[in-house]
């Protein structure tokens, strides 16, 4: 089984867009936290999050996205559970890869919400995730023009499939991302954070 370092190298070799890299790192953080919560394999869950969009920059067409990644991962000897979950997070594969297991549901639930949390953080004055409120994320969800690439229906459906309350899900993922804020570029700048604290 390849290591986390192998997975990171594979991801960055195919993904040069920094925002997309950080998205996958965000999903990795959220998935690791959920694995810990559910008593599941943290490395397996984290790797699933880290690799879930590794083919998206080169193959954005949803008829190819995840299927190309599956081929890469099989060739490199990744666990079939990871490959299944990645295929299952693309709804076009629902007939062959329904989200019937916890890993698949976890990935689907963490995918869109991390994007909404990141977008909400980056419009804050201090650009820091520290202290981000669930209510702020929910408010931005209602604004159709905000983070238009984030599918609200998928976001809601993801929490439902994982059988968690949406607010609790948002709070949980905020916490997981806050613990990795530096890596995710969401720690804010020192000057902006100082100014915020002085207000």
Automatic annotation (TrEMBL):
The lineage of its organism: Bacteria, Bacillati, Chloroflexota, Ktedonobacteria, Ktedonobacterales. This is HDIG domain-containing protein. Pfam families: HD. Residues 22-94 form the HD domain. It comes from the Bacteria. NCBIfam families: HDIG (TIGR00277). Transmembrane segments: none annotated.
């Amino acid at each position: 089984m390849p290591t986390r370092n192998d997975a990171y190298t594979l991801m960055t070799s195919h993904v040069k867009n920094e925002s997309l890299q950080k998205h996958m790192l965000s999903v990795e953080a959220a998935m690791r936290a959920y694995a810990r919560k559910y008593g599941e394999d943290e490395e397996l869950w984290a790797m699933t999050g880290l690799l879930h969009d590794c083919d998206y920059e080169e193959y954005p067409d949803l008829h190819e996205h995840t299927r190309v990644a599956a081929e890469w991962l099989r060739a490199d000897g990744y666990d079939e559970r990871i490959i299944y979950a990645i295929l299952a997070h693309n709804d076009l594969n629902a007939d062959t890869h329904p989200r019937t297991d916890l890993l698949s549901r976890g990935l689907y639930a963490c995918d869109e919400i991390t994007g909404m949390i990141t977008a909400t953080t980056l419009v804050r004055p201090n650009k820091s995730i520290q202290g981000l409120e669930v209510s702020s994320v929910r408010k931005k969800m209602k604004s159709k023009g905000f983070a238009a690439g984030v599918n609200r229906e998928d976001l809601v459906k993801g929490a439902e499939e994982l059988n968690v309350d949406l607010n609790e899900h948002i709070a949980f993922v905020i916490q997981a991302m806050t613990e990795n804020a530096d890596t995710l570029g969401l720690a804010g700048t020192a000057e902006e954070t100082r100014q915020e604290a002085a207000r």
